[in-house]
Amino acid sequence: MPHIAPPAHYDGDPRRYLLRRGTCLWRVHASGRPPWAFNQHPVDALFGGARFDATPAHEYPFYYAGLDEETALAEVLLRDVAPDDHGTRVLPRVAAQDRRISGLAVTSDLTLVSLISGADLGAIGQDAWLVTAGAGEYAQTRGWAHWLRGQAEWACGLA
After folding, report:
1. How far is 144 from 31, CA to CA, in rounded Å?
2. How far from chain centre, in Å, is Cα 110?
């Protein structure tokens, strides 16, 4: 459903995902940045940035992490690497330079908006596009994230 706005008259309830205290979250980050630090810098509303970043019109700290090391590595390092003629994605060494992976334990239960399943996405009037759209559509996915924050004020973030 790319390039459609969120529902103007939404009367549903986004589905919840409980991230339990003690869960280990994995994050790939610049080696000079603490692994627990949220990004406090909004991105341009239309250009650059990632899928669910804050913008000047919708400022909030944001933090990307995965439930396992492989997911964290793939999301950061392989997201925009196309496969070659053999179906292999080759990561240039420079892409991992000055980066590290860290695991952090969640210190309290966190309730998140779940975007994990088709049913979760359907509950907000979306489909897999929201979590798979390419970088050229991140302005639209950021718009959805901002809208979701308004629909689920109870949420600590998105899963």
Report:
1. 31
2. 16
